Every structure is written in structure tokens, then in C-alpha cells.
Amino acid sequence: MDLLNNLALGFGVAFTLQNLMYAFGGAMLGTLIGVLPGLGPVATIAMLLPSIYALDATPALIMLAGIYYGAQYGGSTTAILINVPGESSSVVTAIDGYQMARQGRAGAALAAAGLGSFFAGCVGTIIIAAFAPPLTELAFKFGPAEYFSLMVLGLIGAVVLASGSLVKAISMILLGLLLGQINTDVISGTPRFSFDIPELTDGIGFVVIAMGIFGFGEIIANLGQPAENREVFTKDVKGLWPTKQDFMEAWPSVLRGTALGSILGVLPGGGALLASFASYTLEKKIVKNPRIPFGKGAIQGVAGPESANNAGAQTSFIPMLTLGIPPNAVMALMVGAMTIKGIQPGPQVMTSNPELFWGLIASMWVGNAMLIILNLPLIGMWIKLLTVPYRFLFPAIVTFCCIGTYTLNNNSFDVFMTALFALIGYAFYKLSCEPAPLLLGFILGPMMEENLRRALLLSRGDWSTFMTRPLSAGLLIAAFLMVVIVMLPSIKNKREEAFQDAD
Amino acid sequence: MKIKSQRDFWSGLMFVVIGVAFAWASTNYSFGSSARPGAAYFPFWLGVLLAILGSMVLFKALTIESEGGDPIGAVAWRPLLIIVAAIVMFGLALPRLGMAVTLPLLVTISSLAGDEFHWKDALINSVVLTIGSWVIFIWGLKLIIPLWPVFLTAGA
Predict the structure, then answer these.
(1) Among residues 68-87 of chain B, which lie with CB inside 8 Å of chain A?
(2) What is the reported pTM?
(3) Does B97 touch chain A (CB under 8 A)?
(4) What are the tens digits of pLDDT across the range A451-488?
(5) Which residues span the domain enclosing A493?
(6) How far is the C-alpha of A73 from the C-alpha of A70, rounded, in Å?
(7) In this predicted model, what pLDDT tens digit does every residue of A285-337 receive, in sequence order?
(8) Residue B74: its chain A contacts at CB < 8 A?
């Protein structure tokens, strides 16, 4: 009955008027920014971080979770309506969703995505509530060696599933880890790589990197491309509700997607992206004779992946909440936000801040409910927003990012650093170096170093400690296997195929 | 030797240079030993590892054929420079001129980065965004951001 008590505590926190407002505000803002083409959850959260500076920890995280769901759903909306997925995990939604929209069934597609996501969100919330406490118990058994190995596994897991070159992705992780080394050494107190700039001895703010690379870098990249012709199906979005037949076809896909997404979300690096790809493949395998073929507007191709990516998004909170280890870039931002609020993420959060912990979990459910309330009636408004020309939008994004970085420390230094990272971000874009692993590495860098050095201190300099402790060895072997499997020629081709499928 | 993939060549080179730079710079700090790792221990090995992976990328870029040489393509200098300049201008101007002056400047300058620029649009956008930012950040979120130029408020 602990589960019920804990959930009751959580809902008690989440259902205060103030926190409901923040969840609603977050979902609203997240959707508002998330429907803008080309802005995924990472960029959206990075942009909206300043909105939580003034809040207490609990409402701040509740609001951020709302922003995340909003952004995720906003990304699906653009994928369906204008074939521009706002983020990688809604790439597959665009395949069938856009076709449905072209046939005038945008309403059904949006409703299937929304209701599927809501169902998946409910299940995901229960899974988190049920599995977080035992995992936290396990986390207390972890020594520094285990933590180090777990982070290695997490980082490797995050890149093997990404598209593009594996060696480059691992290099980007290392680059992120190195950027995280610009700070004052915790153990000896020596300032490192700071070029005698006092601001650098505290390290580079992760908001600076996130905004520079994801916010500004993306704007510059967008502006560098010729304006594409956008087709919008404003007039066709009528009759929001799916037909009975749609319902009958969609619900098994929703169930399968939810199950798949919940499992894959927990894996390091899995999260929403892998879940949606895997679900689409599964749907194609299972539904043998769909009424409308896949790729031509099959509702299963929308309902399955959308449920999967929401379930995955939900359960990817588990490693972050219980171990303090972010499995993807969005969670890395959440960890950063917690740190700004003075909370060290990790297993102790559940015992030291139970209101925050359970309140956040309950808010996830509330956030999902808000999305349904917000999106289904307001879909017409979101479409209107899409018709705002980019020349009005991007100065607004620039403005918010600038104010956001300045208010971080009320200091122009961060603004200048962001300008530098905007340049770097554009260079990454041009060299096709995926920046998300860099952010993960950057967040984990200091933690990894500390755990590595502590593990070595404890073992008196014996590196074999990572292999002789069974938990740690298991984690490292898993990481190694992941790399080997991805390198195998047959899998390698499959992997490329899967990503090409989505294009 | 011919570069077979432009993007990989330059990113590989970037990784090698950064890796070596970090490894070399970390020699300024105490290295310690495996039993008592010092401040340089972790960054040194990270730098070495990055340089090794970078040279793998480089090697691949020089040996394995890629489609059409995988060119980097044209650099969008105009938006790149204008946006970066706008950010730097914001950082310099905000503490001195306050939001009321800096934001219209920022919006107008960054608008120049787009394909189309109309004074009327930039003006409307400036007014809307400045008032909007005041409402959100100063009035709503109560963040401490200078609103008016220093020379106006210094006397008060």
C-alpha cells in the first residue's frame, strides 16, 4: 500500500491550485514553442529554462515536466499537419500522420496521437511510481565503481541508437566530457583550463551550451536553408473525433506501443526516439492487412509510435530520478535544472524531498491530462500559429534566449559564451556532428570524474576494480556488447535502413 | 592524398586538435598516480582518447569513398555573423542601456539575418517583444533585469 500512500502524497502536492497552474502553464508554453517547426523538446526546454529561475524547486520541476510533454506533443502536431517533425521521435509519426492529414483526416490523426499519448502517459506514471522505490534501494548499493560503469553504459547507450557515425558520436561525448572539465577540481581545488578567467573557474553553464548550440545554432542553420514551401491543412481539420472504425483499429496499437515504449524508455539512451521507431516496425510486422497500407495514412502508424514515444518519455524519468543519471539530452536538462534549484539528483532525492519526488510523478499524469484538455480543443489555434512567418518567429526566439542567458547569473559573460557556442553549434551542424551526446557528456563529466577517482582511491590504484565488482563488470560488459552489436555488419545495415525508412 | 569525405575530414581534425590541446594543457596540473589521481588524470586520458578517435575519423575520411565527397556546403555567413553579432551587442548593451533600448536593437539587428527584411515588421516585432518580455520577465517572473538606460536612472 506504499504505492497508494506515495501517490496520494504526490497528488496532494500536484493538486494544489498553484502547482496545477504551473503544470498547465508549462504544458501550454511547451506546446506553443513545440509546434514551431524545427524546435524539438531540447531546444524548447533550453529556451524556457529562464521561466523557472524564480520558482521554488517543486513547482519549477513540475512546470518543466509540463513543458517537456507539451513540446513533445507539439512536435507530433507539426509532424502530422505539415510533415515537419519537431523532434526526432516524431519522425515516424510524420510518415502516416501527414498522409492522413492530406486525406482530410488530420483530426483523427491528432486525436489518435493525443489519446494514445494520454493512455501511455497514465501507464507510464504508474510504472514510475511502482519501480522507482525498488530501483532507489538498488542505487544505494552502488559504489563509485558502479556509478562510473553505469555512466559509461548510459553514454554508450545514448549514442548507439542515434543515426550517423558511431565513432563521431562517441567523440562528441568525449568532447562534452572535456568541456565539463573546465572548472575547479573538486578534490584538489585547482582551477583547470580556465585561462585565468574567473567566470570559467565555476565551469561553463550548461544552459549556455544548450542555448548556444540548440537554440541559436538551429536558428542559424534554419536561416541558412532556402525557405521551404509549407503546406498547411488549415481548412481540412474538421470533425476532430476519429470514427468508430478508427478507434477499433487504433487501440491495439496503443496497447502495444505503450508496452514497448515503457520498456525501452528505461534503457539508457533509449527513451522516446527508439520507442517510436521500434513501435512503427512492430506495427508493420503485426498488422498484416491494414485497411489503409502503412505509409499511406494508416492510423496504426500514428497511434502506435505516438503512444510508444510518450510511454518512453515517461519512463526515461526513472534512471534520472532514481540514479541521477540522465538517459538522454532532455533528462540532462532536467538534471541541470535540478542543480540550479540546489537539488543534487540521485537516489537520496526520494527520501530527502518526498514532496518533490512524488509531486513530480503525480504532475506527470496531470501534465498528460492537461495536454488532452489543451490540445484537442485548441488544435485550430496551433495551426494558426504555424502560419506566422519565420521572420517574426526567429527574432522572438533570439530575444528569449538572450534574456535567458543573461538572467542566469545577471551577467553578460554568459551571453558572450552563448555567442561562442552558437558558432560552435553551427560548425557541428555543418560537419554533421550530432550535438546531443555532447550535452550528455558535459552533464555527466564532473560526476564521472569524481566517481572514477574515488573508485581508484578505494582500490589503491587498481583498475581491475571495475571488472572484479560484479555489478560494475556487468554494466561495462553490457556497454561493450552494445558497441559490438552495432558494429556487426548485418545490424549496421539494419540500423541504417531503419533510419532511412523514416526519411 | 585525396580527402574522400570533407565533413569527416574536418570533424576528425577538430577532434584531434581539441584532444591534443586538452591533454597538453592538463600537463600544467598535478597528474598524480592511479592510486591518488590528481587534477590532470581524467582530462589527460580523455584528451588522448579523443585524439585517437579523431584520428580514426580522419583515417576513414581519407580512405573510404563517400557519396560525392560529402561536401560541407556553403556556409550561411550572413545569418551566422548577424545573429552572433546581435547576441554580443545584447551582452554589451543590456547592463548599460536596459531592456527598453536593447531589445528593439536586438530584434531589429537579428531580423536582418532573414531573407526578407521590412522596417515595418521589425518595428512591430520590436514593440511586441519588448513589451512581452517586460510582462513575462520583469513583471511576471520578477527577474532583475535593467529596464532603462543607466544614465536615466543614475540620478534617481
Answers:
(1) 72-76, 78-80, 83-84, 86-87
(2) 0.76
(3) no
(4) 888 888 888 878 888 888 888 888 889 888 888 877 77
(5) 2-502
(6) 5
(7) 787 777 777 777 788 888 888 888 888 888 888 888 887 777 777 788 888 88
(8) 224
